[in-house]
Design goal:
This protein is α+β, with helices and mostly antiparallel strands and 301 residues long. 28% of the residues lie in helices and 27% in strands. It has eight helices and 17 strands. The strands form three sheets. Strands 2-1-6-5-3-4-17 form a seven-stranded antiparallel sheet. Strands 7, 11, 12, 13, 14, 15 and 16 form a seven-stranded mixed sheet that branches. A three-stranded mixed sheet has the order 8-9-10, covered by helices on one side. Strand 12, helix 6 and strand 13 form a beta-alpha-beta unit. The longest helix is centred in the N-terminal third of the chain and has 14 residues. It binds 3-[O-phosphonopyridoxyl]--amino-benzoic acid.
């Protein structure tokens, strides 16, 4: 949609995009102090809204941020934003920043968190990427350790990921993988990672320092339903290079094959059979569940 036509949820009101403004003293802007979620709607139904809200409230609790709305109010606000923009398939960005304060970093001086919901059409990877697969590289930017800045908090401070994205851009790659401080492969700039080894799925455990992706959680469940074993274990670069298959998961990308890393071809260099099975299962499931925006109540979940 053209930006000027969008209506934004801003602190309880629907505001035209041009007029949707927050203060330059907002600590979300000054310090990246805040949290967010990236959510999708398929055919007028919001996918895994409860799980996204769980993660949002957990992020808020961890940074001692009081969300000024109940879960029910936020659910309605997200639905309303999609509805008022007449969207059917949408990407939804829910942002809660610490709100305006003074120039010092003390969050206790900020008494009014800003709540912003943007819903727009979604920009997708072209379909051929899902057949051809992505080429990856491991970058020098490390994911912070859980005792430095826990990647489980989906905070507005994304500079770590952006530095990795800059490395991706410099290499002309759409996505890259980050290692943690122990040298294990943990995730992409905005995606989780899975490898397939001898028919089994392996993905890094949450305590390796990852964002516990909603797509990751759904894929683990769907894989089990497909009769696949899925282990949460540390992955080395050697494991990745020598894997039979690899794929990334994320709200925007869904399930996307990765076919090479650092010049090593992964498996046969195309989206493998297990990856394609998981992708299909994810597509079927995501398009048949979720919270309905255009009629009250919840469809299948
Ligand atoms: N790891 C990181 C670091 C992320 O930022 C994921 C994994 C996947 O999580 P979900 O819940 O989406 O399965 C993310 C996702 C986007 C976008 O446009 C996504 C994220 C951040 C910014 C943009 O897809 N986070």
């Amino acid at each position: 949609m053209i930006e000027s036509e969008l209506k934004i949820f801003l602190n309880g009101s629907m505001v035209p995009a041009k007029e949707a403004r927050v203060s330059v003293f907002d600590h979300g802007f000054l310090y990246g102090d805040g949290i967010f979620e990236g959510i999708r709607a398929y055919s007028g139904r919001i996918f895994k809204l409860d799980e996204h809200l769980d993660r949002l409230f957990d992020s808020a609790k961890s940074i001692l941020l009081d969300i000024p709305y109940s879960r029910e109010e936020l659910t309605e606000a997200v639905c309303r934003t999609v509805r008022e923009n007449e969207l059917v398939d949408a990407y939804i960005r829910l942002v809660i920043s610490r709100g305006p304060g003074d120039l010092g970093l003390d969050p206790s001086k900020c008494s009014n968190p800003s709540v912003i919901i943007i819903a727009d059409e979604i920009a997708l990877y072209p379909p051929e990427v899902y057949q051809r697969g992505l080429e990856l590289a491991a970058v020098s930017t490390r994911r912070p350790a859980t005792d430095v800045l826990n990647p489980a908090i989906k905070s507005l401070n994304y500079l770590n990921n952006i530095l990795a994205k800059i490395e991706a851009n410099l290499r002309g790659l759409p996505e890259v993988v980050l290692l943690n401080h122990q040298g294990y492969v943990v995730e992409g700039t905005a995606d989780n990672i899975f490898i397939v080894r001898r028919g089994e799925l392996v993905t890094p455990p949450t305590n390796a320092g990852i964002l516990n992706g909603i797509t990751r959680q759904v894929v683990i469940k769907l894989a089990q339903e497909l009769g696949l074993i899925c282990k949460e274990e540390n992955i080395t670069l050697h494991d990745l290079y020598t894997a039979d298959e690899c794929f990334l998961t994320g709200t925007a990308a869904e399930v996307i094959p990765a076919v090479a890393c650092d010049g090593r071809t992964i498996g046969h260099g195309i989206g493998g059979p297990i990856t394609l099975k998981v992708l299909q299962a994810f597509r079927d499931y995501s398009r048949s569940s979720g919270v309905s925006v255009y009629k009250s109540g919840v469809a299948t979940v």
